Amino acid sequence: MSEHAGDLDNCEHVLEQVFQFIDNELDTASSDAIRKHLVACEPCLERFDVEQAVKSLVAKCCGGDRAPSQLRSRVLAQLTIAREQAHLA
Ligand SMILES: [Zn+2]
What we know:
The protein is mainly α. Helices cover 75% and strands 0% of the residues.
């Protein structure tokens, strides 16, 4: 199996789950699939905007616009890992 990342349907699916991925709400297999896609798909990495992700998470969790610094750090860490792996690939 050597599927190419970048299929549009696949991207939509990934981006829908990105917030759950950041929030550690996905099981190991699902989050691994998301991470692998983000690593292989640069358009998704670009669309996976950190600020937007943080805002959405905060709106969902707290109903406010104050981003907990812990949450922000976790989002940034996840994104950094994905980006580093993308550059190494
Ligand atoms: Zn993609």
